[in-house]
Amino acid sequence: MSRRVLLIEDEPNIAEAIRFLLTREGWQVETHADGADALQVIQGASPDLVILDVMLPGKNGMEILRELRTLEDMQGLPVLMLTARGQSRDREMAENAGVSRFMTKPFSNTEMLTAVRDLHAQATQS
Amino acid sequence: MRDTLTGSRIRERRQIAGLRQAELARKVGISASYLNLIEHNRRRIGGKLLVDIAAVLMVEPSLLTQGIEATLISALREAAADAVGQQAEVDALEEFAGRFPGWAGVLAQMHRRVVSLERTVETLSDRLTHDPHLASSVHEVLSTAAAIRSTAAILADTQEIEPEWQDRFHRNLHQDAERLADSSKSLVAYLDDSDSAEDRRGVPLEDVEAFFDASEHHFPEIEDGKTADEVDLAELDSATARTLALSFLKTYTADARAIPLTQIKAAVSVAEPDPAQLAAQFSVDMATILRRLAALPKEYLSRPAGLVMCDASGSVLFTKPVPGFAMPRFGETCPLWPVFQALNRPLVPIRKRVVQLGRAAAVFDCYAYAWPQFVGGYDEGPAYRSVMLIQPVEDVQTDDKAVSRVGPSCRVCPNNSCEARREPSILREGF
């Protein structure tokens, strides 16, 4: 059974590039571009991993993550957060919200693939 | 201030001219030992002897007598005060500037540049935090850069890529490159604007303050009897800015009628004006006299006068800047300013000497007064406003216990132990 990633990113060309990269790695990639109903989409899709942008229309990625972590069955879901704001306080805020990995734009493809592989490996081991 | 450096300048010029002390002394008819005393600033010099020496040295006498520009000395003094971990010989500052004017100029110029860059960092940091336009522009640029980086890396690194994907990524790259060019241009245009006189354009209150600043907060036509409605407001772009300006000008007009210019000029020319005494003399309230003093032509007062007005919510309604007293652009000021404390004691004039912490740590006399702007009616509390006149004080010890410590705003205030702090200072992060 293939691994499934849900990519929540409103920037279509970033989403397309990530989709291409992860598909080649054997991931089944589903994309979503709106923050407002992102929580429901995550719950409905039950992915193995979520890549979540911070600046989303409708609802901020940080809020989505906070709400996600209040759900009992979503505590261990690996979430890789993408943001253009890499200041220490943003990182701290993401960690407090329960992020698994935090990545600042612009990132390299290798960095992204390594993060996804690591997070998935950690999740399957635990 | 007595110029103590004429002798040093003579010595410097003599050496430049390649003359020995004895030669110069002989040419102007004095002994070498006397010239030596002059050159070491131990004898004053002026009159014919100075003219003769200048003639031999082939320079204007004024070049020898004019001190090093006060701005240079003051810039060097500031540089010495701001130096971290380095103790400059401040006592020898004038001598240094006199003997090495070129190096002194370079040092002063570098210090001015550091100060200017620090201000830019401060402004940009504040803007990134508070300016939604800038934050979203930066986000747009970084997101587009991220898309370009990923897409370009796919095209460069992927050995076999289907023609369909290749076409799609080429198209995406083209789109993103155009987007990046547009968003970068708009970002640069926005930041460039900040350095121009148009900097403060766009926010109505800031437009109005720029309009008042351009007139140095004084309107001769109103002093001569015209009404506020007759002042030309055409340069204000928005209707909101014109409405605000008219409202402030009406207050100005009322103040000017209550305290005619000729009378206040006479009153303040006698002695250092005491606002409370002047209020009694002109039978006006403290708010009127404080506003009026800030609106006088600058030559009327011995010290510059700045002004801050706020309402009971603490919102700053109007400012007139005064050199050395930082008034943050976004209105999030220090809650310890007397203008806010006056709101707790309406109708009680407050006089407070404050030091504004920060790079300059300058001392100011502040006069503040809060008054009910209107009374709503039965069972409705009055809405208060508060005004503060700010005047710089020189030659004061900043550690004087009578001097209260205030900041500009929390973000750029170095007093980390302040109980009134709202948010951490960026100064802790090394700025």
TrEMBL record, chain A:
SUPFAM superfamilies: CheY-like. One of its GO terms (biological process) is phosphorelay signal transduction system. The modification 4-aspartylphosphate is found at residue 53. One of its GO terms (molecular function) is DNA binding. PROSITE patterns: RESPONSE_REGULATORY. Residues 4-120 form the Response regulatory domain. CDD domains: REC_OmpR. Keywords: DNA-binding, Phosphoprotein, Transcription, Transcription regulation, Two-component regulatory system. It holds the Pfam family Response_reg. InterPro entries: Bact_response_regulator, CheY-like_superfamily, Sig_transdc_resp-reg_receiver. This is Transcriptional regulatory protein WalR. The lineage of its organism: Bacteria, Pseudomonadati, Pseudomonadota, Alphaproteobacteria, Rhodobacterales.
TrEMBL record, chain B:
GO terms for cellular component: cytosol. GO terms for molecular function: DNA binding; DNA-binding transcription factor activity. SUPFAM superfamilies: lambda repressor-like DNA-binding domains. It holds the Pfam family ScfRs. Residues 10-64 form the HTH cro/C1-type domain. This is Helix-turn-helix protein. The lineage of its organism: Bacteria, Pseudomonadati, Pseudomonadota, Alphaproteobacteria, Rhodobacterales. It comes from Ruegeria meonggei. Keywords: DNA-binding, Transcription, Transcription regulation.
